[in-house]
Structure formats: structure tokens, C-alpha cells
Write a structure and sequence with these properties.
Number of helices: 11
Strand order of the largest sheet: 2-11-14-13-12-15
Shape: elongated
Number of strands: 25
Radius of gyration: 46 Å
Largest sheet: 6 strands, antiparallel, barrel
Distance between the termini: 59 Å
Helix content: 25-40%
Length: 488
């Protein structure tokens, strides 16, 4: 290996480097620290927790359905007459179609003639039998037993032919009656699918469909309910019926639905329905009652088929309509429900920000339940009557931080605990409702310009004039001298 010669640094140069670094660190230590920033209060909106009676509902998507009746011929012949107007309502036993009757009238006449012949032949045979019987009573030599038996057999045969002739006549009359096709019940009929003059054959295996008839009243709606919801519904019905009524001898072999109907507990088995396209999501104009549930729960879907029946007097509901069904669920006495905006979600818990005695926000773990009709969430535990919770601005809240409570937002009204729409979640007056819904109060100015004066060019729509815009505030802060630099 080659020997490398190392030249040590001069001691004066090494001392200069060390002295320079000491000056740098010393200057950093003597620099004055900036004053701590003061945290601003977090703007929030709050609401009071109030106990109330809560009626929960189950919502399902259903479909109206009624099995149609196919009007078909039962004989062969030419379609001669059509006695209805397509798409109209027909009453029970109204004449719909008429098939040519000529051949069937002749069949009836021929059957009647055969019956008369059979009756006359039976009368002759009976007379022969009676005569042979009288001769037999006079003694031997007047007739024989074989002759008596023969005439009796002929008479019995003639009576059998009368029965056959009567059956043929009944069949001929029935065939003649089938030439006139009537409506089996009241309903809405379709258009005629076959025009008159065509030959229709109802004696074949697949007779042609002349028209379809739909019974519009009552109307049925079918929907699927999950096994958990079905069990909850059954528990509600069982609780309302009571154990004493369930154990009564007359109700021993009856299902819960049947007992509820028998006891006139219509509220338990009734439902409300709205058709698709309803503008008001809370308006359910149609009401009926549950009259059937399937006897099994489908394992593949975990649901049970429910059928509801409702009156359709004006025939405004058609079979095949997609609809939304609402059923009464659990009723909570003195329950608590809060807006969804107040809920915060963590990996392990759900919590809200509640104010303590000093007005500071604190985490409050809650257990949530179902959703109410107005969109609030039921709280099973974690809150009590009178608590104040933060419903807006929860993203910036920290435990014990300073908060600034803002006035209620008039743009987004909340539903109060009595079902009345209000701004703050409390019961409001008629003037507040008028302001929220945009209704003009009595003392409002008539001039819209005076009521809503135009804004100046410098004013921004979302911020008042006195408060600078975020960009302007940043510029103004940049122009201000830094107190730390000034002190330095």
C-alpha cells in the first residue's frame, strides 16, 4: 500500500471555525420568541334536547297488483256482437260478447223433441208392464213370468232414456247460454282483442282471449318486509293485543293479524300509501289494512311477503303502480330525537358535543336508534332532557374550547317537537312560520324595494359590509407590522 501523508490543520484556523459556530448558536439563543397566538372562539349553533312522544314508521317500496280475468269463449262459433266500449267500467253480468246462436237454438229444439219421444216411449213401456202384471194376477195361462220381466225391463230402459234426453237438453241449453258472454264481476275492461265476424273456438286446448277484465276495487299492494322488521311488527301487535286476549279460548288457533282484526285494532294492521311521483314526500293519501302475510320467510332474501288491501272507489290506482308504503312502527314514550348534523362519527363510537355547566363543549357518547319521519335520529342513551348540544360547526370544536353561539339559521328550518316547523327547533309563532315559509305577514311593507333594499357594489351577498372578505383580511394583516419584529 502507498503511504499517504496527512497534513494537520493549523491550530489558529481550527480555533476560528469553532469560535464562529459559537457566535451563531449564541445569536439564536438571544433571539426573542414570538408571543403565543390567541385562539378565536369557534362559531356554532346549538339546540335544546327536549323529551317527546315519537312515532316511528317503516317505509317500503311496493307494487299494486290484481290478477286479471281473461274473457274467453267456451263454444265454437262466429263472433256476432260486441256490447261494451273499450276501457270502460262494466258491471257484473253485463253482456260483453255474443256468438252466433242459430245452430245452438236448433240443438235445443232437437233435444226437447228427443225428450218428448223418450217420455212417450216410457209411457208405452209402462202400460205394457202394467198389463202383463194384471194378467199374471189372474192365474196361470194368461201370461208368463218371462213376459212380465221383459216388459218391466223395457220400462226401466225407457226411464233411463228420459234421463239421457233431459241431460242432452240441459247441455244444449247451456251451450246456447254460452253464446252470450257476460262479465263475472264489476271491473275495468280492456279493448276487444278479436273483432266481430271472426270464428272463435273455445273447445280447443287454448281458447282465444277476447278481452281482459280487471277488478279495480279493492286494490292490493304487495311489498317485502325484512325478518327483523316483521318480528318488530309482530311484537307491537302482540303487546297491543295483550296476553289475556291471546290466551282466550276463542283466539287459540288464530294468527296475530286475525286477532287484531277481530279486536278492531285497525291502527296496528293499517298502512298508508303514496304513488310514485308524489310531490309531497310526507303526503300519503291512500289508506288500507294488511290482510295477508306469507307463511314463510324467504331464506335467500330474508324477507316476508306482505299484502295490503285498500279501497279504490274512483279507480285512480291501477295494477302495476310502483308505490311507497308506510307502516306504524315502534312508539317511544318520552323519547329524544336530534338532528343528524349534531352526530359525529369515530372509529369506535358515535358522539355529540354537549355544553357543560360552564358552557364548554364536552364529548358525549350516544347510542342511536331509528330515524324519524322528519329526518332526525332517535337517541337511545347518552342525552337527557334539557341538555344543550351543538348542531352546527362541530368540525372545529375541541373539548373545553371557547365557542360563540350564533343565532338560528333561518334558511334551514327544523321541525319542532310538536310537528310544527320552526327555525330553532323550539315552538315558533305564526310570524316566524311566515318568515320561514316565505309568507308575507300582515305588517310587511307593500313595496318590495323597501322591504329588500338593493346592496351596494362593495357589499358582498354572503358577508356584511363591516366584516372584510377573507382575501382583504389577509392583505390587511400583511400590511400590519409584526410585533415580534418591532420588539426586536
Amino acid at each position: 500500500m502507498r503511504n499517504e501523508r496527512r497534513f494537520p490543520l493549523p491550530s489558529s484556523l481550527l480555533l476560528g471555525i469553532i469560535f464562529g459556530w459559537c457566535l451563531v448558536f449564541t445569536a439564536g439563543c438571544y433571539q426573542k420568541a414570538a408571543p403565543p397566538k390567541v385562539r378565536e372562539a369557534v362559531p356554532v349553533r346549538t339546540d335544546k334536547v327536549v323529551k317527546e312522544d315519537i312515532q316511528l314508521f317503516y317505509y317500503f317500496t311496493g307494487k299494486t297488483h290484481v290478477e286479471p280475468i281473461n274473457i274467453v269463449p267456451r263454444i265454437r262459433g262466429y263472433l256476432e256482437e260486441i256490447h261494451f266500449q273499450s276501457g270502460f267500467i262494466v258491471e257484473k253480468d253485463d253482456v260483453l260478447f255474443k256468438i252466433e246462436q242459430f245452430d245452438y237454438i236448433n240443438d235445443v229444439a232437437m233435444a226437447k223433441a228427443k225428450l218428448e219421444v223418450a217420455i212417450a216411449d216410457a209411457a208405452r213401456c209402462k202400460a205394457d208392464y202394467d198389463r202383463e202384471t194384471e194378467l199374471g194376477k189372474q192365474g196361470q195361462g194368461f201370461t208368463t213370468q218371462a213376459s212380465i220381466d221383459r216388459t218391466k225391463a223395457l220400462w226401466e230402459e225407457a226411464k233411463g232414456k228420459i234421463g239421457i234426453a233431459k241431460a242432452d237438453l240441459a247441455e244444449a241449453e247451456k251451450q246456447l247460454e254460452r253464446t252470450v258472454i257476460k262479465a263475472p264481476y264489476k271491473g275495468k275492461i280492456s279493448r276487444n282483442l278479436i273483432e266481430k265476424g271472426n270464428l272463435v273456438d273455445g273447445t280447443s286446448g287454448s281458447p282465444p282471449v277476447l278481452a281482459t277484465l280487471m277488478a279495480m276495487d279493492p286494490m292490493y299492494v304487495y311489498f317485502q318486509i325484512t325478518d327483523a322488521e316483521f318480528n318488530s311488527l309482530m311484537r307491537s301487535i302482540r303487546t297491543a293485543i295483550g296476553e289475556a286476549a291471546l290466551k282466550a279460548p276463542e283466539n287459540k288457533n288464530l294468527a296475530l293479524m286475525e286477532i287484531a282484526k277481530k279486536m278492531n285494532l285497525d291502527k296496528l294492521t293499517h298502512f298508508e300509501m303514496q304513488l310514485s311521483g308524489e310531490k309531497d314526500p310526507k303526503h300519503y293519501p291512500y289508506r288500507g289494512f294488511i290482510d295477508y302475510n306469507d307463511n314463510i320467510i324467504d331464506i335467500s332474501t330474508g324477507t316476508n311477503m306482505i299484502r295490503g288491501r285498500l279501497v279504490n272507489t274512483n279507480y285512480e290506482i291501477f295494477s302495476g303502480n310502483i308505490c311507497k308504503v308506510r307502516i306504524n312502527g315502534e312508539f317511544i314514550k318520552d323519547g329524544i330525537a336530534i338532528t343528524e348534523k349534531a352526530l359525529c362519527y369515530d372509529l369506535s363510537e358515535i358522539y355529540v358535543w354537549a355544553l357543560d355547566e360552564k358552557g364548554k363543549p364536552q364529548k358525549r357518547t350516544v347510542i342511536t336508534g331509528s330515524q324519524t319521519e322528519d329526518g332526525r335520529r332517535v337517541i337511545k342513551s347518552g342525552l337527557k332532557d334539557g341538555d344543550t348540544i351543538i348542531i352546527d360547526g362541530v368540525q372545529k370544536v375541541r373539548p373545553g374550547c371557547d365557542i360563540k353561539i350564533l343565532p338560528p339559521d333561518p334558511v334551514e328550518p327544523q321541525s319542532d317537537h310538536n310537528g310544527t316547523t320552526s327555525v330553532s327547533g323550539e315552538k315558533s309563532s305564526g310570524k316566524d312560520l311566515a318568515a320561514v315559509k316565505g309568507i308575507k305577514p300582515e305588517n310587511a311593507p307593500s313595496d318590495p324595494v323597501k322591504a329588500n333594499p338593493p346592496k351596494t357594489e362593495n357589499a358582498k351577498p354572503d358577508q356584511p359590509k363591516s366584516a372584510p372578505a377573507p382575501a382583504d383580511a389577509a392583505k390587511s394583516n400583511a400590511l400590519k407590522p409584526d410585533p415580534s419584529k418591532a420588539a426586536k
